[in-house]
Amino acid sequence: RCGARILKAAMARLPIFDLIQRVGGVPDEEMFRTLNMGIGMAVVVAPFYADAAIRRVKRAGDQAVVIGEIVRGDGPAVELV
Known about the structure:
The protein is α+β, with helices and mostly antiparallel strands. Helices cover 35% and strands 16% of the residues.
């Protein structure tokens, strides 16, 4: 009885995704479902550990940002806001 609320504004959107969406007339939901919008990998941690997890990823030489949260409810498994 939970789902993921993904914050579209939290992610840097690469120009290639705008081109694909515009030329193909693909809705946002399908872009995320099919192409993952360049997210690559997502890790779910308790909010208390988010800053520490991001620091570790950055120390390893990669990029990391908080892109959403896990929420209670019977709604969709993934909600794009």
